[in-house]
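Hi V.,

You were right to ask for the full record rather than a summary. Here it is.
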Amino acid sequence: MLKEQRYRNLIQTYKNKIYSYSRYMLKNKMDADDITQEVMIRIWNNMDRFSLFAAKTWIMKTTNNLCIDYLRRNSAQKKRETGIDDEFEECYAAHNSSDNPHNLVHINMMMTNVKRALEKLPEEFRSVFILYQINGLKYREISKSLDIPLNTVKVNLLRARKYLQKELKGYRTDEVI
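Predicted structure:
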């Protein structure tokens, strides 16, 4: 009974982060669904192997490893349909909600430009950027999740930001057409 309750709490807390990270990394909704389900199964099977304090790191590391394994197995099919998940769009729309058609067109164009820029990010930069900016992990958590040094996390995040700045440089905020 206690194990089931603990499992439910973990799933409720992390299911969206698992899915959104998988979606960003795999660029395919069905594959992200599969990885999310596999992570949930592994959480259940390994409940006794990690503490609640280390759960976030363990879950994100497992998610990352499964995504990387999947990408390696399917490297020939890497160029698939991609998209930013609804969570990202809702987050931005919540800050800029308006019924003004001008603003709605502007938001849609901005989202398209951001999606394209994120798609072009190299994998090592994209994973760090997504974990930090979108999933809200701290540097140390990312370091443990991806099994890379803390300074590498910082450098990759800086490089991802510079890359995105370069990609989005030509996009003006007052530009709508």
